[in-house]
Amino acid sequence: MKRGLTAAVCVAAMTAGIAGCGADGGGEEAAAREITVWLTVDAQKNWPELVKQADEAFAARHKGVKVKHEYFEWTAKNQKLDAVLATDEVPDVVEMGNSETLGYLAKGAFAEIDPSHFENSEQWLDALRESVTWNGKLYGVPYYAGARTATWRTDIAEEVGVDEPPADWKELTAALDKIQKKKGDKFSAWYQPTRDWYTGMAFVKDAGGDIAELEGGKWTAGLSSPESVKGLKNWKAVIDKYMHGDKNKDDADRYIVYGQGGSAMIYANSWEGATAADPKFDKTGGKLAENLESFALPGTKGGLMPNFIGGSDLVIPAKSDARDMAADWIKGFTDTKAQRGLIEKGNLPNAKSLLAPLADDPETAAAARANENTWFVPMAPGWLQVEKKQVLQNMLNDIAVGKKSVEAAAKDADAQINAVINGG
User: Can you tell me where the transmembrane regions are (predicted)?
Assistant: First the structure.
């Protein structure tokens, strides 16, 4: 069995008419002596050196202009953003998940950018570029992309006689069954937070279902379809058999929980396994670093589990009075040097030209392969409301803890989705 973590891969993107980056800022700089950059805690915890690198490059071009950073958990960021967008005190750069942008674009919240000012823009990943495109114009810059891969402990797999990653769902569940039996019911053969909707919906897609479909110009929820219900039941079977942690948790601290040593496998963002092995989080006495292996998760019907094309974009609020300087900071934070730094952290880059070599590298092949079968959220006007209301998270949690049957939970979720997905 291959030793060492097979690094995973991530995916995301968006546009606006900002002036040339790298200029001195002119009158803008005279008025603004500070720009504010909002990023999620992923950057703060996992690649702070890349933020510092961008700050230093920016400082060299804009003497005396400070960069103020604020970091947010994903669940809290948009509530704060909604509040400040109603005022004139807006940040100058904001990280957005690629599934979050559509509602803001429709409302004109972000400034248009000129892609020619950003390195590799002609090679940006289609899914990321699309997430920041509105009416043919660009309102954001792809930051990084992500794939989700399975990562398990080879030492635990070898304890039950498994020395190769599973080739299909049958091999995977056979191995997990052996691990679960050997380790007992206080151990999670597969630690899977129930509120992780990206995984729950991957099972739905795997079974031929969908969150919602567009018919006749109208979006209609589809979680209660026979195919979607089958996928949700497949997901619940995993939770019931292998997940023996807190069934009310989300996935925000999954890598921390994994580092504590109470589970054999996670299905997560590609960087999470490597982060769990960091000495700050590894509570196994150093066993993780030498005993992690990543692989593309098999699907239940053959082939690969559909992989959510996730990722982040960087946008500039239209109300910012430092849009040129904001664009210049983004330019330094998304150039080839920065993208290579993100690759080293287990992320997928924002450009096809940087992504291609990863499939041939044993350390990144799992993440690259995971993206051979992908899915994305409905690009519907009200999708952001579905996310804000945590409809999918709550449905999955209700199913996992037995509060509702799969059928009842799916029917209730469909009603909530239909109420908002078309922009209502």
Answer: none
For residues 149 and 346, is the Cβ–Cβ distance under 8 A? no
Which tokens is 207 given?
């079974």
Q: Residue 229 has which token pair?
A: 């219900």
Which of 231, 301, 215, 402 lies closest to 223, judged by CA? 231
Contact 111, 289 (CB under 8 A): no
Q: What is the mean pLDDT of each run of 10 residues along the chain (424 residues)?
A: 34 38 49 89 94 97 96 91 95 94 91 96 90 93 93 98 97 98 97 98 98 95 98 98 96 96 96 93 94 96 91 97 97 97 88 86 85 86 91 98 98 98 82
Q: 124-161 pLDDT, tens per residue?
A: 988 899 899 998 999 999 999 988 999 999 999 999 99
Burial (Cβ within 10 Å: 0-12, 13-18, ≥19) of residue 30: exposed
Name all domains of the chain by residue range, CATH numbers in brackets.
26-147+309-373 (3.40.190.10), 148-307+380-420 (3.40.190.10)
Task: Name the pairing type of β-strands 310-315 and 93-97.
Answer: antiparallel
Residue partners of 342: CB distance under 8 A and separation at least 6:
47, 50, 144, 349
| Token pair recorded at residue 52 | 């510092």
Pull the structure tokens for residue 336: 């080839």
